[in-house]
Design goal:
This protein is α/β, with parallel strands linked by helices. The protein has 12 helices and 14 strands. The relative contact order is 0.11.
């Protein structure tokens, strides 16, 4: 391990610890080193608050002069809710800047590096670049496409079932896996399910971990069948948005609105998931965790809207043609049309197996 990777790893660790707090902003960590001593450490804590570099510079004070700053993302160059970090680094008297990856934000995109180099600082780019990109997979998509990064999550048996044929589903996966799911909920801005999940399970859709934040709850409900006494309507633990269609009952819509629920009508006779994704992007929702049933999962996958798949496999077999699976719908006609998953990873959690993969839509662009 080189000196640069050692300090960049520390900056990455600090940034990663803030996952679930900064969106729609990126995760960023920074370390300032002078005379082989760490004199400043900072991380971005929340959108609208000072960036990681500013926290590190404030901690270092006069000791920043002549030092090296390590930062996981290119310092910003524009004025937003905070001032440009590239200018602050220049003003602190820092001599060398080590950057993990450039910022895909069109407002930055190399301009931060340009400011630093024009000020006479040595700039090194690409230290732990892949790790930094992976950490900010949500931001990297949202800032460019203005659409949320979408993760499909399911807990399933080895034969792909999410319940028995009698719809009994408690519990397929272990307590350890379910705890990991709550962490996933905390890390995402929103959680999405279909109305059938609400009707059958009456879930809270919250993140039950210490100091965890509850995600925005999104329900797809073409005809507003959602029970008015369901927890997502009455418990006030988190905001609930319902996406419905033009055929929804106006009176029930108004009743839901009176209860504090936000209702969006898509333009067709059934909820259009592509339109849902576009609206969520307009509402600055940068990440969505889908925990719906097999039909909801299929509707997003068939439209090439899923960015990441997380499956928790329990070493159990249920069987039964009528037992629901985590992916239903019509399905693809040919194996050649099947969606490949790349950059796969398997992690053991207790007796379960957590699978992570990224859909590769090589047969066509996302719709």
């Amino acid at each position: 391990m080189t000196e640069h990777t050692f300090y960049m790893d520390l900056a990455l660790q600090n940034a990663q610890a803030m996952k679930g707090q900064t969106d729609p902003n990126p995760l960023v960590g920074s370390v300032i080193v002078n005379d082989n001593r760490i004199v400043g450490i900072g991380t971005h804590l929340k959108a609208g608050e000072p960036h990681a570099e500013i926290h590190a510079i404030r901690m270092a004070g006069e000791q920043a002069k002549g030092g090296t700053i390590y930062v996981t993302l290119e310092p910003c160059s524009h004025y937003g809710r905070t001032g440009p970090c590239a200018v602050a680094i220049k003003g602190a008297g820092i001599k060398k800047v080590v950057i993990a990856t450039l910022d895909p934000n069109p407002l930055v995109a190399g301009n931060g590096v340009k400011i630093l180099e024009e000020a006479g600082m040595e700039v090194i780019i690409g230290v732990r670049e892949e790790e930094a990109r992976q950490m900010n997979e949500v931001f990297n998509k949202f800032i460019v496409e203005k659409k949320p990064f979408i993760t499909l999550k399911a807990g399933t048996t080895l034969d792909g079932k999410i319940a028995t044929h009698t719809m009994d589903s408690k519990w397929i996966t272990s307590a350890a896996s379910r705890q990991d799911v709550h962490r996933l909920r905390h890390e995402n801005m929103a959680i999405l399910v279909g109305v059938n999940t609400v009707i059958e399970d009456d879930p809270e859709l919250t993140a039950r971990i210490p100091n965890g934040r509850h995600p925005l709850r999104i329900i797809l409900d073409s005809t507003l069948r959602i029970p008015l006494d369901s927890k997502v309507v009455t418990d006030k633990l988190a905001d609930t948005w319902i996406f419905t269609s033009q055929q929804a009952d106006s009176e029930k819509e108004q009743t839901l609105i009176n209860k504090g629920i936000k209702v969006f009508r898509t333009s067709s006779s059934r909820v259009d998931v592509k339109e849902v994704v576009s609206i969520l992007g307009e509402q600055l929702v940068s990440s969505v965790l889908i925990e719906g049933g097999g039909s909801v999962h299929a509707s997003f996958l068939e439209q090439h809207l899923i960015d990441k798949v997380v499956l928790y496999f329990a070493p159990k077999l249920i069987g039964g043609k009528a037992a629901p699976t985590f992916l239903e719908g019509t399905g693809f006609e040919k194996m050649a049309d099947a969606v490949d998953l790349t950059h796969t990873e398997i992690i053991k959690i207790g007796q379960d197996f957590k699978f992570i993969g990224y859909p590769q839509y090589s047969k066509g662009e996302k719709k």
